[in-house]
Amino acid sequence: MRLRRVNPIKEILRPLGQLLIFVIGSAVIISAFVLLLALLLRPTRTDIDIFQVSLILLPQVLIDGITLGFMYAIIAMGYTMVYGVLEFINFAHGEFVMFGAFAGVELLIWLNAQGVLRTSEMWLALLWLVLAVLLGMSVGGALAVSAERFAYRPLRGTPRLVPLIAAIGVSFLLQDTMRFLQSAINGDFYRTFPEFGPFAQRLTLFSLSIDERPINIAVQYKAILLISFAIIMLVALNYLVNATRLGKAIRSVAQDQRTASLMGIDVNRIIALTFLIGGAMGGAAGVLWTFRFTRADPYMGFIPGLKAFTAAVLGGIGSIVGAMLGGMVLGLLESFAASYFSIFSRGAFGAEYKDIFAFGILILVLIFRPQGLLGGKTTQKA
Amino acid sequence: MSAMLELEKVTKRFGGLVAVNAVDLRFEKGSISSVIGPNGAGKTTIFNIITGIYRPDEGNVRFEGRSIVGKRPDQITELGLCRTFQNIRLFNNMTVLENILVGAHTRTPSTAWGAVLRTRHFKEAEEAARQEALQLLRFVGLPRGLGDQLARNLPYGQQRRVEIARALASKPRLLLLDEPTAGMNPQETESAMRLFRRLRDELGITVVLIEHDMKVVMGISERVSVIDYGQKIAEGTPEEVRKDQRVIEAYLGRSAMVETAAVERSRP
Amino acid sequence: MSTQIAPTHRFRQLFRGPLGVLLTLAYIGAITALLILEPRSLLWRLLLFTALALIYFIPQRPAVKVILSVLLLAIVVPTVGLRNPFLLEIGFQVAVFATLALGLNVVVGFAGLLDLGYIAFFAVGAYLWAFFGSQQLWHLNDPPGTFSIYPTFPLAAWWFWIFIPLAILAATATGILLGFPVLRLRGDYLAIVTLGFGEVIRVLANNLDKPINLTNGPQGITPIQRPPLPPFLTSPEVLATLSGWAGRPIGLNDVYGFFFYFMGLIVLIVTIIIARRLEHSKLGRSWTAIREDDVAAVAMGVPLRRTKLTAFAIGAAFSGAMGVLYASNRTFVSPETFSLTASISILVMVILGGLGSIPGVVLGAAVVTLLNIDILQTLSLLLSSLRQGNEVIPLLGVPWKNLPTQLDPARYQRFVFGLLLIFMMIFRPEGMVPAERARLELHESEEEFSPEVKLEGDAMPEEQPVD
Ligand SMILES: Nc1ncnc2c1ncn2[C@@H]1O[C@H](COP(=O)(O)OP(=O)(O)OP(=O)(O)O)[C@@H](O)[C@H]1O
Ligand SMILES: [Mg+2]
After folding, report:
1. Chain B residues within 8 A of C285 when measuring between CB atoms
2. Are residues C112 and C258 in the same domain?
3. What ipTM did this prediction achieve?
4. Stretch C27-44: mean pLDDT, rounded?
């Protein structure tokens, strides 16, 4: 570990630049691949012009993919940081996401019942949304810390699979705990994100025409907000880890726990803080996820959690930059798979296979490049 | 002379660290040889390369004339080359006898089908393996009754012997022992040395030791190779090596370190 | 420690000698009587199950234990089952899940490889017979819900017997196909990848109703044929006699209940024998060795990949055979049965009972299965009957009627599994009947061990320090 002075501006600009490169890079590569495929397949279809259809779909698919990618990236932070420090796959991370989501949604539902949310002012609506995200972060973080304290810490130092099995237990327990709470209080086990504010409005970026057909390229405010939130969080996390004393402590614990504790670092506290940060990111992601997909239910965290783990592995687990890249690539791939599978296979295979696609990627990466896209010979730690 | 085992310009890097640097070694058939060197010199890494646990970045390893680079560890064991570990690696929750039977894996002809159907062939093979394991137990100087104990319940010195018995069960023609007397008291060391000689004299096994205890090195080895910083710095009979200027420097230069290590070793 | 052991020890001494046998018989007799008087009581059912556990634990010669078990399983259970067929159903399900748990135990308990998608092999077996043993072959081009049931089938029912070995082959092949690429992964990665594989199989079952209708999608395949019964079992006279004994009309379905109960039992016993024999063989020792220390194991000549692969394949084989039996017992399969929860519930059985411990795993399977299909269901029924009435919940003061139906205990399997997993890992990772202890009992020793479980199934990472 080098004791260098950090330049705060650089620590903010660097992740921004990386994100920009990842987004544009993966978007361009994947789009180019799909369009090429469409061009190749074009002569086989007489009913529709497959190239044109692909092109028309492209902007929306890209925006969906990027939004999804950012959410995977935030969730993946929880996996990658904990893995970096403990070499432990926190199976229950998806449930922290779910608890965060419920916390945010419950707050908004309550506010809605008070009549507070009936506003068309963007800034006011935004304020409530931020509040919900903050609550989601606190709940996710608190839950992560408790899980660490009561379920994982007693198992530290046991063979690797023991805490992993306990984490599966935590995951299941939390799912049904939320189900129970919701059922007992609300009579049903899922909740819907209340409609409020002008988030659904679209911002037209530009218009163009293909074969005389006018196409408006527009983005929902929702998507813009989601992406902005995500960027703020990722940059803040990068700053925290790379430019603060706490971050330095986390990194040194990740390098070598024994040495770190010899150097006077309270390893238990740092591990708890790592869980706190990861859980908070997860909780925030939960609120954003329901903001995007409207429904919160006790099992919602599981599949996104698994995919975010895939993203973390794809980028190189233990590496924060890697998780950002992995999330982006996976989000885009999944969004493309969901839209183009059915077009290219004439409806024989559809969006149902997008999960398989993600797992397929996980298996391939683990087999052929277990250190991930960015991992070198020695895996870069958090 | 026919070399049983031969290393040619073997190099192994870990990231930036060159743990083994272009090392040439030769071990003659029927000899007892030692590899010595300060801590972190790369001795264990050499054993790991020979046994196929690491793949060398460069160079060649020949066992009885054939190259074994790229072979899996279990294939190398099957060829007749087995080892023990510096930090005893017994199967702790298995009995002593089971440990030895695992060592006999490559020499036990019983199959899974035979096990399920309890064929006569299976029973005979298992019984033969058991008898042989008991004999090995006696050969390394342990009482028969120890066979049913869990390996982790044995005292340190006995665990070392079980590890040797386990390696012998694979019927090796060459045996690599990684610091086999570490943590032993003088009497134990003495009787361990007798055992090493018997390995060669009674079983005809070529023995290669990594040792820190100079008494053992000088006492039983016919040839000594000295490794320092991943390189071979000297080679010869014990007397020749003892007088070698570079060896003296390598040890004196780090004598403090060697001593602390020796203290640590004597308290496992 | 000794203060903890003494009471159970003294309790065991009670069952020594001929008096012990009499005591056990009396216990079995009492429960049988209770069950004949009140066939539907959950409590007596559970006590019947404890009788089996008792037989295992008492200090008697193996032959005596076998006779007692046969008495219980082949005479008492079927007799009581005449009055309450649910008992046979439970017996069958326990046998199915105990077999699955034994299969998973080979993989996780013996070889130390955490497989979270184990149910997929069960699905392979079940869907194999579901596809060929139903009318699905005739509906390859019909979307789900657009066809009706015919009285005939493409394959005759006796093919069931051919499909048991075929399912074993298919599941084994799937195990090898999956295992080949993934078994060199480190333990925790292997867990995630197998979980992903389990999900892939489920998603495929859910969606392979197009372009060709192979699985009939989420609706599942039905009806699936049951094997033909020998005519003498289904003749009107036999049925009439049985009805006389039972005090209720006995139909073909009841006879199938007996058939599947005994079939399940036979497969389970065969599985136990195979698992035991493998455990104490060269292969079993290699599994334990790679679980304990894979580097030392390869250095002793144990081929890592092949040994892991056989564990995977054998585990899968057990599961595949039971899949055929299960599909034909239910006459229906759907993707829902093969969820992650199902995989984890089997893992819970293995961990609760004791990793690597055959009696433990069977016990764990029995407990978890009873919990799943009997105890939680009974509680749910109780709750819904309370909901019919006008009583008020004590302490809370809310009428039972207002309790949301979502609070059904039967829906909270995951809660129970989660708690069990955490609890076991923290307080008793070696399970209820630890493997070492079972071994010591064979050696007639009363010494107590509480070993830490060694759960490392990691493949050998190339650059990990070895010394
Ligand atoms: N898997 C590995 N990854 C990285 N470095 C390693 C690895 N294995 C060994 N090393 C390094 O290689 C060097 C040589 O190690 P080795 O264990 O071979 O030394 P040694 O001569 O056996 O020492 P000792 O007497 O302490 O056993 C050491 O610096 C060690 O840290
Ligand atoms: Mg060494």
Report:
1. 94, 98, 101-102, 105
2. yes
3. 0.90
4. 88
Indicate if C6 and C127 belong to the same structural domain.
no
Helix B156-168 × helix B96-103 angle, to 10°: 30
A337 in Cβ contact with A353 (< 8 Å): yes
Q: How far apart are the first and last CA of chain B?
A: 40
CB atoms B74 and C303 under 8 Å: yes
Q: How far is the CA of C305 from the centre of ligand 2 (A)?
A: 27
Q: Are C323 and C167 in contact (CB under 8 A)?
A: yes
Q: What distance in angstroms lies between residue B46's CA and the mean position of ligand 1's atoms?
A: 9
- CA distance readout (Å), A172 to A155, C46, C110: 18, 26, 25
Kindly state whether residues C227 and C272 are assigned to the same domain.
Answer: yes
DSSP alpha helix (H) spans, C58-84: 62-70, 77-83
Last residue of a domain, one of C284, C316, C347: C347
**CB under 5 Å of ion ligand 2: residues:** B 44, 86; C 467
Domains delineated in chain A:
8-39+49-368 (1.10.3470)
The pLDDT tens digits for A152-198 are 999 998 888 899 999 999 999 999 999 999 988 888 889 999 988 88
Considering its fold, how many domains does chain C have in total?
A: 2
Does residue C58 sit within a domain? Answer: yes
What's the rounded Cα separation, in Å, for the pair C147 and C142? 7
Average pLDDT over residues A141-145: 97
C225 & C330 share domain: yes
B74 and C296 within 8 Å at the Cβ level: the answer is no
The whole-number average pLDDT for the span B2-27 is 93
Q: What is the model's pTM?
A: 0.90
Would you give the DSSP letter of residue C300?
Answer: T
Do residues C49 and C127 share a domain?
Answer: no
CB contact under 8 A, C295 and B53: yes
* Structural domain containing residue C66: 1-83
Q: Is A256 on the interface with C (CB under 8 A)?
A: no
Cβ contacts from A onto C, under 8 A: 150
C51 plus C108 within the same structural domain: no
| Amino acid in position C88 | L
The arrangement of secondary structure in B1-80+172-268, i.e. its CATH architecture, is 3-Layer(aba) Sandwich (3.40)
Rounded to whole angstroms, the Cα distance separating A177 from A98 reads: 11
What is the C-alpha to C-alpha distance for residues C302 and A93, in angstroms, rounded to an integer?
Answer: 37
Dihedral, CA atoms, B87, B93, B95, B98, nearest 10 degrees? -80
Whether the pLDDT of residue B254 is over 60: the answer is no
Same domain, C323 and C219: yes
Task: Note the pLDDT tens digit of each residue in C141-159.
Answer: 888 888 888 888 899 999 9
> Token pair for residue C354?
């004791």
Q: Which residues contact B58 (CB under 8 A, 6 or more apart)?
A: B9, B10, B11, B22
Averaged over C207-219, what is the pLDDT?
A: 90
| Angle, vertex CA C249, rays to CA C248 and CA C251, nearest 5 | 140
Domain ranges of chain B: 1-80+172-268, 90-170
Tell me how far apart the alpha carbons of residues A73 and A79 are, in angstroms, rounded to a whole number.
10
Chains touching chain C, criterion 3+ CB pairs below 8 Å:
A, B
* Spatial distance between the Cα atoms of C378 and C372, rounded to a whole number of angstroms: 10
Neighbours of chain A (3+ CB pairs under 8 A): C
What are the tokens at C223?
Answer: 């009806």
Q: Are residues C25 and C98 in the same domain?
A: no
Residues in C touching B87 (Cβ below 8 Å): 467
Closest CA to B208 of B224, B185, B219: B224
Alpha helix (H) ranges present in C14-41? 17-37
Angle between helices C119-132 and C304-330 (to 10 degrees): 50
Residues with C-beta less than 6 Å from any ligand 1 atom: B 14, 17, 19, 37, 39-45, 86; C 463-465, 467
Question: Which atom, in ligand 1's list, is nearest to the CA of B43?
Answer: 21
Which ligand 1 atom sits closest to the C-alpha of C465?
A: 1
